[in-house]
């Protein structure tokens, strides 16, 4: 036997010794093995809050870093992904097709609200969860009948059919809503009085102010229509509407034993982008960021709430380039008055949040929520 072979045998015997020792330990009673991965440890979320910052890409989010004195609430997320936003009809999506992808998990044509490419209605996550006993809410700074909120409760061929969308909301399973769009309920071309119809359908409706101190009954629904069209711009004195409406919605919805689904849209970040108006855009962005802080505080306390924050698309081709080559001075600028095709980020917090990392299609958000809820 060569010395080398002897060494090999010696090492092998050592291994045997060690493995025997290990075996002995494993035969003694052991405490239950903890789950192997954090994914398995995660329980299913009870509540879902989806926040849509319309028209918000990375640059819009970055602007909070340079134009706001407080750290951005976006920095509180650990799980971040990117979505591809093209629609079935166009490389660059609009808000209707984008929100329908989130709400129904399908790619459809630009302009479509809750319908597929054959204009057939597709069930939305809000409707599906409502059927399972969830309380539901939609909040926006646009008209409440605008493309993004509408895609969660209405099914029409074209986004501009806001009177039809108002009728759909009136008869929908939505329990709480707040936003603008009063004229589509009380100054309609068909002369119908949808405010009366809302009351008939168990809604308490307020068209003058957001009563943040109100006592809310679980056997009632609540609707706030606080402007004829969209709500005012933040820089024109909208005040804390989005924050207060979200706080009020949360205090009402969280009382539901079965859980809730809430969609909150920062609608006018997109409008600031369309207008190529950086002050408008950044004002809306900071407003949304504050609401995000409120929602994250709620989710942190609650521990059963999954928060998903994303955008339907980027608007404006917004950049934070230097001012004439001076790298110590930023001059916000735009490359288009429309939307862009760039991927947009997804941020997730709460049970199941890690599922939202990676790069995927916008339709996956719906599928991921349903998988987490085991639906
Ligand atoms: Zn837009």
Automatic annotation (TrEMBL):
Kindly provide the name given to this protein in its UniProt entry.
Alkaline phosphatase
The alphabetized UniProt keywords are: Hydrolase, Magnesium, Metal-binding, Phosphoprotein, Signal, Zinc
Where in the sequence is the active site?
A: 95 (phosphoserine intermediate)
For this protein, the record's InterPro entries field holds:
Alkaline_phosphatase (IPR001952), Alkaline_phosphatase_AS (IPR018299), Alkaline_phosphatase_core_sf (IPR017850)
Q: Which residues bind Mg(2+)?
A: 54, 146, 148, 265
GO MF terms listed in the record are:
alkaline phosphatase activity; metal ion binding
- Report which superkingdom the organism of origin falls in: Bacteria
A Pfam family the protein falls into: Alk_phosphatase
Known cofactor(s) = Mg(2+); Zn(2+)
CDD domains cross-referenced by the UniProt entry = ALP
Q: Does Phosphoprotein count among this protein's keywords?
A: yes
Q: Which residues form the signal peptide?
A: 1-23
Q: How is the cofactor bound?
A: Binds 1 Mg(2+) ion. Binds 2 Zn(2+) ions.
Per the record, the similarity remark reads: Belongs to the alkaline phosphatase family.
Q: Which residues bind Zn(2+)?
A: 54, 270, 274, 312-313
